[in-house]
Amino acid sequence: MNPTAPAFTLRDYQQDAVDATLKHFRAGNDPAVIVLPTGAGKSLVIAELARLARRRILVITHVRELVEQNHAKYAALGLEAGIFSAGLGRKEFSHQVTFASVQSISRNLEHFAAAFSLLIIDECHRVSEDEDSQYQQVITHLRDHNPGLKVLGLTATPYRLGYGWIYRTHYRGFVRSEEPRVFDKCIFELPLSHMIRHGYLTPPEVIDAAIAHYDFSSLTPSESGHYPERELNSLLARHPRVTRAICEQIEELAAQRQGVMIFAATVKHAHEIGGYLPAADTAVITGATPGEAREQLIQRFKARQLKYLVNVAVLTTGFDAPHVDLIAILRPTASVSLYQQIVGRGLRLSDGKDNCLVIDYAGNGFNLHHPEVGTPKPDSNSEPVQVFCPGCGFANIFWGKTDSNGQVVEHYGRRCQGLLEMEGEKSEQCDYRFRFKECPHCGAENDIAARYCQSCREAIIDPDDLLKRALQLKDALVIRCAGISLSASGECLTVTYHEEQGEELRERFHLDRPAQRALFNKLFGRRCNNGESPRQFKTATEALAAEALLPAPDFVIAKQTGKKGRQGGGYWQVRERLFDYQGAYRKANAL
């Protein structure tokens, strides 16, 4: 351990993050993540870990500003470290601790042939699993020289649209991803609300866009969460008065503010915004702005020679201007994480700054303190809701909808995220599924998108293939089910499936017969109340009393039976009920 005493005292949560790292890597080499919000001082945590190291450490990130910032915090301890960054004009690689840009390292791997004990990646949400990516080239190279390499990532936003969570499990006992991830476990996380509540960050004051706002609801983001630039420009071009009115309001509100950051939707949009603001006080930065010019504009803004800084997705990370106290969001985003990154630019503490004004002109509708759910928002009316697992009791966070009393009326969760700790065995994810597709071969419950059974590995019939075949048959009927209703005669329970245009199909279950009672409970009782309250109904009276909680299938497939030519001799017999359909056919109420 380096004997040099630190030149600063870590905050309690920073020390907790350091302690969690030491504990984790003493027990094994699984790659780990620390999640700290913007302004929490990740560079101080990095500096302390580097100070404590006995062997060689490499700290990498994607922008030179962060390389310089992380190195400066370490140098403040009175210790010497190398910098390997073409952007900073330094290529030093013989020190025990080296701070570097991933671009420079990946192009000069031959200089890093010695064994490193620890690789720290700042802004690690940028690391992909692509073997040819610069980050993976560095990781592979270092592991070739030391198979026991420990990899630690730090980020404020451990989630990426189109990919999901960047780690697999969380130290508080839940699963983020069922798929393998670059990082195995989040070992420490601090919520943004803690930082604000304890005075480490400036309180945000979120206000409505009273003058005007954009309506981006007609646009659909890609799987990666990006909005097509051509469609954005086309929509924005139809509303020049809206942009002008927004800029007028920003300028009016900025009169009592120190620094204003504006996040535009496209390059064209950014220049339009810049044209409506005072030219002498405004800078526009885009991905096309040359590096030297960008640096000069940023330095002028930090020196308060400029008041307005307009940018397009280039200043969401690695940018630090504490005096910023007005954030204007004029771009859509499908990610809570990106929304938090944007707002985080204005939450650092600064003299004479009581709060940060945040105005969302794009109608993103995110609560700054909402957690990232882990899947794209299904629709604008969805919000994070808490759903308890009937199997293990874990409190899941899913997208869902609530009524006027705050009660959950619908949620979109599929599988419980709880991590079951079993003594002497490896932790496993709870196998309870709120939504599922049953294997026709063994009866096991699978994810609704599964093609092969996780239990017997047999192929599961694709719902689209099932519908396509049924639609081609003359003696088959397919209805889009808009709802169900129940009626009973003794223990004979009739389920009526209502088609969106008014047609009906009926199916009877004799609940006094064990086989039919088991089938009804498998279809409806197991899915009762969105899978939150599975029931085993014994009588028709019990089922009727719970009618409002029973789910309706999305499609029902029936086949004509009996003699068609005789009056009353033929009828439709229900053969398939498709719940939680995810395919290409339109569902009821989805026009």
TrEMBL record:
Molecular function, one GO term: helicase activity
Pfam families, A to Z: Helicase_C, ResIII
Entry keyword annotation includes S-adenosyl-L-methionine: no
Keywords: ATP-binding, Helicase, Hydrolase, Nucleotide-binding
Keyword Cell membrane: no
PROSITE patterns: HELICASE_ATP_BIND_1 (PS51192), HELICASE_CTER (PS51194)
Positions of the Helicase C-terminal domain: 249-391
Transmembrane annotation, as ranges: none
Every Helicase ATP-binding domain range: 23-158
InterPro entries, per the entry: Helicase/UvrB_N, Helicase_ATP-bd, Helicase_C-like, Helicase_Restrict-Modif_Enz
Protein name: DEAD/DEAH box helicase
